[in-house]
């Protein structure tokens, strides 16, 4: 058995809307409230109890829901408008007939249906205690060996609860509960289950707890038991349950108020070959003290339920109307086969039917707590992931019509997907899970919707597939898709620990240019391991295109034929393990740096783009292997000098020598593709001409300015002659 998680963490890590889900919806314009669902034993037919009708739907194909038959089950036309018939019970009573019961305008009616003809046959017997009068009251029903067991109300006002057995065989007579004592206090029944090992039935419900004295009425979640073959006592409790007992269900976080209102219970049978005592009950609880949407999920083990009913009991004082612990332990309380018990023993049974201890959850607390969602229905299934471990998946429905897919890990619960079942949110009523078909059917007031339990195609990359942490999905390296498990024996990449964000198992993305040398490193896990490279596009890697180096790395030339996925496998002692993986893709071509000429050969006058605005990126080079030489220099020689790259194709070698130049790592990597036009370098000719003209102009200005000053000085000498000391004019010869 898979150990249940001990955490109560709820974390939404991914969300997928219904647009990515292949949801199949079925509805009819004249049929509403399709809220009672029953799957046939082969899961090919879905029977639906609706308002004034019972439908038979063909669900043999996962992508189509079609109507097979329809039977009208409505009251008279005068009552049809205000009081229609709401079908509450729809069960397979035997191999040839279905049983159905509806409110029928507050006057319950039942019928038998032959599935092959789908014709209603009215039952002549009294239908009280088989289904409720009101269309708004919840009930539960289960058939065992052709006998019908129901938990509902038996009166018009809906205040008299009743757990009964109908269509009893072997002339034992139908059995109901004793009405002289209030065995149930305003219960709301949600589910029922069958324990074939002890031949007991369990009914899950919430009721008012009278064992506590509070100002406000306290709601208590409970489970009640009855024995299938109980026939009542001889004088006391004639045709009444002598095996009836009830026990509280405790769903409470540490130092918090309990979640005391039970909404739904799903019974998950043990794995094939497992012990029946390991049957689990997944219950959705809410709190009567919560002011907002809040809910929790608790898990209970069948063995713990059995233990509670074999332990101590409380007794009810008829005079004081109080409960008190029963000091003496009576072995017959909660036991089957009391038809020959004494009157004194049965008198004790009538007043001592409440267990002294509660049924505690498996993990001693909720496995999931949500402070933002109020869940109304739950379904559960087990699945085996690619890592070989078993996981439990819950499908929880909110009151607004959203479906949450939750995986229970050892470290807590994870919501891995959210699906909107309907565009217009509405109150969801019923769930039916087909584990064999992998489909969950949701019944609401407007129709039936089929939801696949997984949708692996939503995740388009290996990283998305692994990080989704969906145990039902895995990455297929041969097809490079995220696919469901169990579809062939191909290797599926999955994270060893689904609770960790580990994408090391995914192939690394490598983007390269055409004719670029690609080197894919691979490290040996041990010295004795032998490395082998494989690829889905090649049965065997051709030596003309690929070379495996001594250090285990794979080298090849990037071309259309060599783009794809490659895996390095290490084999030692007959055991193979994928060590590393790569997906080689063609990178986008670099952006041109020169404008393209127009039709008439004119180059548009556009602003030159600065080199800083052009984003440059160095070619991707994988991390080198453990060889020290590889760490120092990844590409240190040209292809002409590559000793390990012995390409036998002479054309490929000549083409490489003509058009490739691979320099040292210390220098920049450069190469020329054939026919490529080198980018135009930026010209400074116009700037040089302008500077030269300005320089010449400045020289001319300086020369003209000098001439002007010289002529001005000469003119001044003629106008003002030299005068001596005695006042006479001095002539200069």
UniProtKB/TrEMBL annotation:
GO biological process: what's one of them? neural crest cell migration
Q: Which residues form the Sema domain?
A: 9-453
Write out the ranges of the annotated region (Disordered).
587-607
Protein's UniProt name: Semaphorin-4B-like
Q: GO CC annotations?
A: plasma membrane
Q: Which residue ranges run through the membrane?
A: 688-710
The record lists the organism as Seriola lalandi dorsalis
Q: Where in the cell is it found?
A: Membrane
According to the UniProt entry, its GO molecular function terms are:
chemorepellent activity; semaphorin receptor binding
